[in-house]
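Exercise: predict the structure of this protein bound to iron/sulfur cluster.
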Amino acid sequence: MTAVLEAIDLVKYFPARTGLFAPQGGVVKAVDGVSFSVGAGETSAIVGESGCGKSTVARLVLRLIEPTSGAVRLEGLDVLSAAPAELRALRRRMQIVFQDPFGSLNPRMTVRAMLTEPLQLHGVVPPARHDERVAELLSLVGLHAESAQRYPHEFSGGQRQRLAIARALAAEPRLVVCDEPVSALDVSIQAQILNLLAGLQQRFGLAYVFISHDLAVVRQIATAVGVMYLGRFVESGPTEALFLRPRHPYTQALLAAVPVPEPGGRARRIVLAGDVPSPLAPPPGCHFHTRCPHAVARCSIEVPAPERTPDGGTVACHRWREIDAAATGAAHRAPENPVLARLQAAFTRVNDGARDARL
Ligand code: SF4
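Solution:
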């Protein structure tokens, strides 16, 4: 079966400037050799801390920015070499839902005008059928047909995200890139939007690329996960296998910081942040070696190549076979290694801070 989306060895370097009028100084390696694919009815999640390059990957696959090198194929068609007319046709088949539904919806347009725009642009249905199609789209995302006459500010945050999803669906895409689509929403609303996305995927066989910093959310929706750190995938694989037996020390630390759901327990929402080195000057060798409790001399010299794991995933770590990625549940136990414990504590503190800020 042909994948809906194939991203092959994507690289994006941005020129870095030292000051407003200063000459160019070095490059920021935002994305440095990322490959993945996603099929119809599947969700490929990219997870990582802020600044790891995951949103840049989202923009690269949609060709909203041009990559430094690499390839993107949508149902076998080369997106990056497509001429403008061909690209317009491809754009109909790949849509995006952003994190901030208010920012992504034009406040001066009624819902009807907003949903009619892609119908006209892509000639999805004849003009005589626009109103009927708008009502269908609103129904698909759980909103009343009367909503068509209202403006975005008249809706709640969750409803606005439903509108953003309806707008993405208007073009009848094959691929939807969801860039932190529930991060700005309350937990109860998050679940509703995730259920809506899952239902739409099942109904239309959509392929999703799901960008998130929230591992709990990713586990709910993704069929496969890629964990990014400073522009590279450090680990990828089928979701359940990766969550049950993470192989890379970074994945292990992230998973261990996800609270276990239990009555009276912490909220599952997590914001990943911490002592990430600058992407302008990432550590040589394995980028993670400055934070890794298992680092040895080789790690600061040699870039670890991705290797296949028995679970059908990949991991980029020189020592993954030696590292005890204990089986199911190990990721939730308190680590004995003090360095790993400090790293996990940092993630948990950030999570608690984010939760407290929301209360
Ligand atoms: Fe840690 Fe070395 Fe593996 Fe990098 S390659 S994750 S520094 S053990």
